[in-house]
Design goal:
The chain has 118 residues and is of the alpha+beta class. The protein is built from three helices and three strands; from the N terminus they run ααββαβ.
């Protein structure tokens, strides 16, 4: 893929992640019967969404990592990577990129390496 396409994909991922984070925050606030979530909980949620979006953007911009096959979830700064890759190098690169994002405390790499289909 060329760099312009990667940048466009990354921008789309960031926009979708931000929208998803806001929708989830709204659902969480609506589900509370007595009070809205505390500001610190909301801030942590937004921080986690920003971490996830940053990792997805880095994956999309990388030449080795296929961002569309790797799922990223973040809770409390701890990231879980899952999905399937064609090589151990791609799995390791996805983890290294995630570890390079500000706010990441730990990465659990549950990516499974599968040989490419013939």
């Amino acid at each position: 893929m060329n760099k312009k396409l990667n940048a466009a994909i990354a921008a789309g991922i960031l926009a979708l992640s931000a929208t998803s984070a806001l929708q989830a925050a709204d659902r969480h606030a609506q589900a509370s019967t007595d009070q809205a979530p505390s500001e610190s909980a909301a801030e942590r949620f937004i921080d986690d969404a920003a971490i996830t979006a940053s990792i997805k953007a880095r994956h999309a911009q990388d030449d080795l990592v296929r961002a569309f096959v790797i799922e990223v979830e973040t809770v409390g700064g701890e990231v879980q990577l899952s999905g399937f890759t064609a090589s151990p190098e791609e799995k390791e690169r996805a983890e290294k990129l995630a570890l390079g994002v500000d706010g990441v405390r730990a990465v659990r790499n549950d990516i499974v390496v599968r040989a490419a289909a013939d």
